[in-house]
Amino acid sequence: MDTEFRMDRRRFLVVSGGAITATALAIGGLSGCRRDADEEDKEGNAVAQLITPLGPKGADELGMILAHEHIFVDLRTWDQPGYAEAETADVIDLMAPEIAKAQEAGVTAIVECSAVGVGRRVDILKAVSEATDFPLVAPTGIYREPWVPDWAHAASEEELREWMTGELEGQIEETGVQAGWIKLSAGDAGITETETKILRAAAGAGAATNAVIGSHTIRGRVVRDQLDILEEAGYTPDRFIWIHTQAEPDFELHLEMARRGAWVEYDGIGSGGDRTYVDRIVRLLDAGLGDQVLLSHDRGWYDPAQPGGGTPRPFTYISEEFVPELTAAGVDEATIHKLTHDNPFRAFSR
User: Fold this and answer.
1) Quick check: helix, strand or coil at residue 68?
2) 3-348, which class in CATH?
3) 208, 121, 228: which is closest to 165 by C-alpha?
4) Is there a contact between 250 and 216 (Cβ–Cβ < 8 Å)?
5) Model's pTM, two decimal places?
6) Which of 318, 320, 195 is closest to 265 using CA atoms?
7) What is the rounded CA–CA span in Å between residue 91 and residue 93?
8) pLDDT by residue (tens digit) across 179-188?
9) Euclidean distance between CA atoms 221 and 219, whole angstroms
C-alpha cells in the first residue's frame, strides 16, 4: 500500500471512528505551527494570516506569492507501485536550488497544490520548507476521479468534512503541519457524484474555517455547476478559486465566474501564449475585476515517476519575463503589486 493512501486512510479512520477527533489529535502535536486564533490587531479585529509549515505569516512579512506551484507531485494513480515514494533528501537537493532562484526573483511564498490523489507528501513539503526557510502553503482536499482513493469513495460527506476540518484546524497526518487551504478538482465532462460529495464536504470545512477552496476545473460550465453546489451548501463564491481558468477558451465564462465573485487564476504563465494572458488580464482589469485575478506558473517539481525526480521548471518566469510584459501593456506598478502580492495573500490567508 502506498505512503499517501496509507497515511491519509489512517488519518481518516481516526476522524470517523469517534475515539478522538482529528482536531483534538492534531492540536496536541502541532509543534507551534498552528495559527493563533486569538491573533488580533490593535482594534481587536482578527488578523488574516497565511498558514505555512514555518508558522503563520502576516501580510507585512510577505511580498510576491505564487498561487499555484508544486514541490512534489505524482500524477500516477494511488494504486501504482512506487506511488508518491521518494527520499526526502533527494527532493531537497532537487528543489532547494529552485526555491533559491525564486527568492532571488522576489518570491516570498509558494502555494503547493498537490492534494490527496496526486502525491501529497506533507512530510516532504515540511522538510523542504525548513531546509530552505521558505514558506509553503499545504492543502487538504482530494483530486478528481480516477485519482480519488477508495477510502474517500466510501466516506460520507460528513466524514470528509470532519477530516478536512481536522487538517485545517489541526495538522495533516502526524506532520505538525496545518493545512492552509482546500484543493479539489472536477472532471471535464461534468462533476461526478463522488466529486460533488467532496465539494459539499469542502464547503462545510471551508465555511467553518474560512479556508479558500481551489478547484482544478477545465471547463467553465463545470465551474458554474460547482458554484451552484457551493451556494446551495452555504458557501460563498468569493472564497472559491477557479484553477486553470486559462484552459477555458470562452472568455465570457471567465467574466461570468468573476462577476459571481470567484477568483480566476491564470496559472500556466511561462508555457506560451503570453499575449493571450496579457490581453485577458487587461480585459478583466478594464471590467473592474482586478481584485479577483491570481497569477502563477504551475511549475516545479520533483516527480517520483521520473529518474532522479525529473527536471524541474523554475518559478521565476513571472518575475523576470511576464511582469515586464504587463508593464509594456500599460498595467501600472500598483496594479501589478495587487496581482502578485495583495491578491494571493487575500485569497489564501484566513
Assistant:
1) strand
2) alpha beta
3) 208
4) no
5) 0.91
6) 318
7) 5
8) 999 999 999 9
9) 5
